[in-house]
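Quick one:
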Amino acid sequence: MKRILIVEDEVAIREFEVINLNRVGYTTVEAGSGEEALDIYDNDSEGFDIALLDISMPGMDGFTLCKELRRRSQSLGIIMLTARTQEMDKISGLMLGADDYITKPFSPTELLARVDSLYRRVEMHNNAAAPARSDEIRLGDFTLDLRRRTLMKKDKNIELTQVEFQIMEYFFTNPDTALDRTDILNKVWGSSYYCEEKIVDVNIRRLRMKVEDEPSNPTHLVTVWGMGYKWNTAG
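Output:
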């Protein structure tokens, strides 16, 4: 069952999201505040595939809620709702673990496109079949397990969101190869998915904080100026 936790303090917007998601087969659970949402999430027995979070809420805001939900689950899909002028809100939400954002005002078509795209990635992450090729890719100190969808650095497990894993899988299957932002965007988010390329840059920053000894001076996940990024096996 496709379950979405909708967190929005404005009743009219929340009803708009619920109506449009219900009519295409999603099961929605509503919360009017961050505190209520966290209580619902912690006491729910069925689990959620996606959480749709408004940023500007009284009490616990969307940023804090995103951080708490991501701490509880790396596989949960998280979409933040931001105002069109709040550029830093988009970046802040992604850095805290959100997978995507939707800018207000938005149409039913955009809402469903973003939710469907994220749901497909979450479903693939949670129900991954064993790949035909070798289950593991080893590059230096790192081991990417394609069956379990995990990343190890020596003996340490590095927790990745489903988006982060897909990015790492793309790098590990193309080591020492420069991949431009558009390639990464199309591979991970899909060629039919419209999104600004900065979502790639923010996810790379987040990954560097997890895989690099010195994130500000990366040796593995390096920038290829004027193009994009590559995984440096000699790092």
